[in-house]
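Continuing from yesterday's entry. The apo prediction looked reasonable, so today I'm repeating it with NAP included to see how the binding region is handled. Same sequence as before; SMILES copied from the compound registry.
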Amino acid sequence: MKTTQQTALITGASNGIGYELAKIFAKNGYNLVLVARNTDRLNEIATDLRNQYNLEHVVVIGKDLTQPNAAQEVYNEVQGFGVDVNVLVNDAGMGEYGVFATETDLDKELAIIQLNVVSLVHLTKLFLKDMVLSNEGKILNLASIVSIMPNPYMAVYGATKAFVLSFTEALRNECKETNVTITALLPGATNTDFFHKAGAEGTRAHKQAQSADPAKVAQDGFDALMKGKDKVVSGLMNKSQAAASNVLPDTFLSQLMRKLMERPSEDEHAENHVPSTASTLVSLAVIAGAIFWGYKKYSKRALPI
Ligand SMILES: NC(=O)c1ccc[n+]([C@@H]2O[C@H](COP(=O)([O-])OP(=O)(O)OC[C@H]3O[C@@H](n4cnc5c(N)ncnc54)[C@H](OP(=O)(O)O)[C@@H]3O)[C@@H](O)[C@H]2O)c1
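Holo prediction written out below.
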């Protein structure tokens, strides 16, 4: 049994990638502070992990991070427990599917910005300050493959994830003289409740998500965090798409993402169908990405971009 005297605070620990991260931290001997809205579920997880890994402290904080004071309240509760947070994982997040101009709900989108951006910034401000003062700590921020590509039909969500990546990279640079590291995890579509909650069921991206295991995504994030890496794109196909985003024009990438976010036609469901525009675009992006990736890896010459 591994034990560390370290504590990881994980938002969004009740489900999906955040829950998988909680299991990995527990397995590695971390005490835990688990944050989400569903307190019953968090308490179940806390009991399981405490017993399975013989952890000294597993604390649950039920909080709705779309509320303006929520981040400060989480910080105050942690102070009240007398816990030092060594690792902060900003995982909690949600999306909203539809055409921005005519379909999506503005209140939900403003709540998404509050959760994915404002609370993440607020929590980072409070905990990073302490980490820099003690010259020790790690932060993992949940970005996304859409941090580096426009995301039609989830325009607000995509923009929040672009913010998370930019914010992470800037803070990382500011902290480079310290022992504090900040890492961004960029998953592609992953098999969690995310698509259902966003109203994006049945889209091509949702179908793609079925083959991406959240446990694998979480492990990639944990490994990158422990190595102090700047960012990690989870999954080979996503790595190729990410590499392609360096060389392909934004209009192409927007169209690619739009196709992935659409629901396939009846014909496309039929067997032996002719390759769709979406699969052609994805194939082109993957090939371009693979070529660029190989070039970057093996060429000794400076890149032209
Ligand atoms: N799944 C994907 O395809 C994918 C791809 C790239 C990035 N991501 C990112 O990965 C992160 C985790 O998503 P997931 O796929 O694991 O989704 P998920 O299964 O829906 O889990 C989301 C987590 O966030 C918590 N959460 C949601 N709203 C909250 C709120 N208002 N206050 C506090 N906690 C809240 C949920 O807990 P409660 O409901 O109990 O509050 C849950 O624990 C998100 O930031 C997401 O943007 C996901």
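Comparison notes:
- The pocket of NAP is lined by residues 11-18, 36-38, 63-66, 91-94, 115, 142, 144, 187, 189-190, 192-194, 197, 209 (CB under 6 Å).
- The chain has twelve helices and seven strands.
Will overlay with the apo model tomorrow.
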